[in-house]
Amino acid sequence: MSPRLRSYLRRHARSYAIGLLLGTASAVLLMLGPHVLRLAVDAIAAGASPFFLLRYAGALIGLNLAVWILRYYMRMHILGISRVIEYEIRNDYFAHLQRMHVGFFQHTRIGDLMTRAVSDLSTVQRFIGPGIMHFTSTVVMAVIAVGFMLTIDLTLTLYMLVILPLVSLTFVVLGPLIHGQYESVQEQFSVISAHAQENFSGIRVIKAFAQEPHEAEAFAAHNREYIRRNLAVIKTEGALWPLMSFFLGLAAVVLLWQGGQAVIAGRITLGQFVQFIGYLGQLWTRSSCSTRGSSTRRMPRRCRPRAERSSSAGSGSRTTASPCCRGSTCASPRGRRWPSSGPRGRVRPRWSVSFHGSSNPPQGVSWLTAWMCGGTG
Questions:
Q1: How distant, in Å, are the alpha carbons of 3, 92, 359 from that of 345?
Q2: What is the dihedral angle through the alpha carbons of 91, 97, 100, 104, rounded to the nearest 10 degrees?
Q3: DSSP state letter for 348
Q4: How far is CA 75 from the centre of its chain?
């Protein structure tokens, strides 16, 4: 994580702290559910009356209701503040672009700027929002669940701890491959955006030389390549679920084999066996959520420094612009913090650079303006 991104997180540390505390509380309450279920199963085995079992049913309903409320406010804090940070980064990014010299735009493709403003920034939002939320919830629930499982049966827990890491190992092996493929998808998206911007800005030349069919075919070729790269990512990600299902199925077989023998031998009760299955099910659920949130591993690592030193129009001053884009955040020269424009960093749509040959900005940059200022989508 870059120092600049950490500065945004520190600015909203209070909301993250509240959200993580709520998530921890919901995890603790959720882990009490299998314990209540164990008491109910043991009570059924002991011949308890249906009226007596209603108390356990009410306890389960109350626990799940409390978990739902806590998770709602946890999501409001973590996911909500991630959207706020996304908004602040996008405004700072656009304000930084407005201060760049015209030479920077002559040597930088609009598609690259669009990718950073839209796709890369959305990936960052998924990392600082759902990524952090699911990671912390998984860690807390895993620690609590393993602790309870160890108190039930040490041997059965060790069997599960040998098999379940294979699920994570599958993701560790395929994760870097998925990340590299996703990088190629992002680069192709940049090519498509740049091609569209060039065609819109030079439409008169294209029409004058009757190049419409050629440009249409070139644009279609770029899109076919974009589809091909996306399909490669989908195929690689598709291998995750069968492998995970195999290892989880293997864990279920070992659980029924060893757990059933433990119940028959009287080492654990039937209620404890059900409780153990409940904790293991929670671990499986968190593993599935972590895999679905695999986009958090797709944090863009592109770092393409570009330096442009030229004379300012109408003045003899020299301007240096050397942004180094880390994912969706660009570092200003000498690492200075981008000053905000307007109240609370809100960027007002205005143009502070000139574009040769036209009194209006290129069409691709107009799209960028709409995305930055929230005019579309």
A1: 20, 7, 27
A2: 160
A3: P
A4: 14
User: How confident is the model over 178-209, as pLDDT tens digits?
Assistant: 888 888 998 898 889 888 888 998 999 999 99
Q: What is the CA radius of gyration of the chain?
A: 27
Whether 45 contacts 271, CB under 8 Å: yes
What values do phi and psi take at 318, rounded to 5?
Answer: -105, 135
pLDDT in tens, 321-359: 333 333 333 333 333 333 333 333 333 333 333 333 333
CA distance readout (Å), 181 to 235, 243, 352:
11, 20, 37
How far from 287 is each of 23, 82, 282, 313, CA to CA, in Å? Answer: 17, 23, 9, 57
Domain presence at residue 366: no
Rounded CA gap, 362 and 147, in Å?
Answer: 60
Instruction: Tell me if 373 is assigned to some domain.
Output: no
What was the pLDDT predicted at 286? 65
Domain harbouring 151, CATH code = 1.20.1560.10
DSSP lists the bridge partners of residue 308 as 321
Q: Where are the alpha helices (DSSP H) in the chain?
A: 3-11, 13-45, 50-98, 102-106, 110-115, 121-126, 132-152, 154-163, 165-201, 203-208, 212-238, 240-265, 270-292, 363-373
DSSP 374: T
Find tokens 């599935």 and name the residue: 288
Phi/psi zone of residue 65: left (φ > 0), alpha (ψ -120 to 50 degrees), beta? alpha
Positive or negative CA dihedral for 115, 116, 119, 120? positive
Low-confidence ranges of the chain (pLDDT < 50): 291-377
Whether the Cβ atoms of residue 129 and residue 89 lie closer than 8 Å to each other: no
CB 42 within 8 A of CB 270: yes
Asked if residue 337 belongs to a domain, the reply is no
Range of the domain at 138: 3-298
> How many structural domains comprise the chain?
1
How far is the C-alpha of 148 from the C-alpha of 327, rounded, in Å?
A: 41
Does 329 fall in a domain? no
For 47, 354, 360, the CA distances from 1, given in Å and listed in that order, are: 57, 35, 37
CA distance 281 to 270: 16
